[in-house]
Amino acid sequence: MRLVQRYVRLTGATIAVTATSLAILAPQVAAPHSITPDPPTASVWALVAAATGITVISVVYRLRAGLPSFRVSLVIMLVQCGVTVTAIVILGPGTSVELLTPATALFILADPWSWIGFIGLQTVELGFFHDYPSLLALLCTVAHSLVTGFALYALVKVTEHAVTLRRAQVRMVDLAIANERLRISRDLHDTLGQELTAIGLRAELAEKILSTAPQRAAEHLRGIQHTTERTLTEVRGVARGDWNPAFDDAVASASILLETAGVRCNLDIGTRPQGLAEHVASWAVREATTNVLNHSIARFCTITTRNRDDLFLLTVDNDGVQTPGLKCGAGLAGLDDRVTRIGGVMRAGRRGRTGYRLTVEIPETRGAL
């Protein structure tokens, strides 16, 4: 942004200097030695249009694709020089076509070669194709040419920075959209995973006891209705981005689900997390519970929390790993992302032949994300 402001200021300065140069040149132009040129012919217009078109194409190419390669620059300069030489041979000097060749060099060559080419071509054009009535006229023409070149260069650079800034803004918007989609996908996975597991578990139990214990089956069906309503509320919160599970609720829900599924749940809650640590720890408990219910044949599960050196430690152990080559799925990957974003560490892996442990270490003094 500072570069754009600097180029804007420089462009304003060059416009002021250009106006001053034109004011100095005005008396020279109105002097008696001035020669009134003939009206422009079709040949003049054709050559001016060709040279102008090449210059415009050079500017557009630079703004859309950046500086051209050496071969492309060489081709453009050869064509522009050919148009200029043709105009000088056919029409003679003074048609202003030759002024576009140095400008083209400014647009298609990298610094400092752009200015070297511009000054060199301007020197040839001013020294060999124009006559000056006085030293003042020569100096004013040189100053005007340099200032005009700088003004054109500054204008292109400002436009180039504006295009770059616009492209960066578009990329930032695309990145923000992708991050939001990732957040919604991750939150929906973590939210719906446990709730759908609970609904499926209660529905299975209700089916098994429907004929022998209809009252208990009805309780499970009412539990399914309650879970469905709660899930709908949570999904709405996820869509808004303002929902996070409470740690105590996550632990209580995990204990109920595990016990209902026949998994003995041992709670050893030595401390409770605060702030962002609470949100992340809650998601960790939900993900660990879902994995125990869906991917293990555990008989017991232990949830432990401790404090150590300003770190909140959460450990979830179970004894029912049934997949030898257990890999980190989308749920654990999303949990690892949550933990890493607030400076924590997540570890998950087998313990012994059938044990599995999920450990999360979270700094409790972290601020907002």
What does this structure look like?
By secondary structure, the chain is an alpha+beta fold. It folds into two domains: 2-172, no CATH class; 246-369, Heat Shock Protein 90 (2-Layer Sandwich), CATH 3.30.565.10. It contains ten helices and five strands, in the order ααααααααβαββαββ. Strands 1-2-3-5-4 form a five-stranded mixed β-sheet, with helices on one face. Strand 2 (300-308) and strand 3 form a beta hairpin. Helix 2 runs parallel beside helix 4. The model is unreliable at 13-37 (pLDDT under 50).
Short description:
The protein is an alpha+beta fold.
Descriptive keywords:
single chain, 369 residues, alpha+beta, Heat Shock Protein 90, 2 domains, 11% strand
